[in-house]
Amino acid sequence: MKNNSGSTISYGYYDSPVGRLLVAGDAEALHLISFPNDRYQKQPLGDWRRDEAGFTNTFEQLGAYFAGELKVFDLPLRFAGTIFQNEVWAGLCDIPIGETISYGELAARIGRPKAVRAVGAANGANPLPIVVPCHRVIGADNSLTGFGGGLEVKKFLLEHEIKWSAQPRLI
Predict the structure, then answer these.
(1) How far apart are CA 40 and CA 37, in angstroms?
(2) Is residue 93 annotated as a catalytic residue, yes or no?
(3) More exposed terminus of the chain, fewer Cβ within 10 Å: N or C?
């Protein structure tokens, strides 16, 4: 598949503690991360090219994240949603590791305080989970709410981040 700039989409798989993740993107940016148990699980399209070597930096950063050594991803990302979805996804990137906020708080942060349901829908459509931390958004009553990778994965990610996010790191 070619993206809007005509680049070929490549894909690879990363074996993580939450399952085998499908990652896809082009030479400029990461476009997709898909969980193996996602109810909307993505599959490589017929014209995608398998190329794990093209995702070395992505795989290294995911490895460092799961090892508790990376708090902020530094990857070029391609948001291909609506203007509103892109605003929500950018807002997700501002939630610090080890913290959670409600959908209402996220709506307020992006300047759309009455768009709580739309924020929830955009959050659920996030094509780059983990890197764009949609798992850090929870219900107003502090309950875990829907997550594409499943609530057990969401719980794992939050517990993983809380466990090491506040610990000082040695240089």
Answers:
(1) 8
(2) no
(3) C
- CATH no. of 83-165: 1.10.10.10
Q: Are 92 and 132 in contact (CB under 8 A)?
A: yes
Rounded to 10 deg, the angle between the 116-124 and 83-92 helix axes is 80
| DSSP E strand boundaries for 26-163 | 30-34, 49-50, 101-102, 137-138
Per annotation, catalytic residue among 122, 134, 153, 157: 134
Question: Where does CATH 1.10.10.10 sit in the chain?
Answer: 83-165
What CATH fold (topology level) applies to the domain 10-66?
Double Stranded RNA Binding Domain (3.30.160)
**How many Å apart are CA 102 and CA 100, to the nearest integer?**
7
26-64, pLDDT tens digit by residue?
999 999 999 987 666 677 788 899 999 999 999 999 999
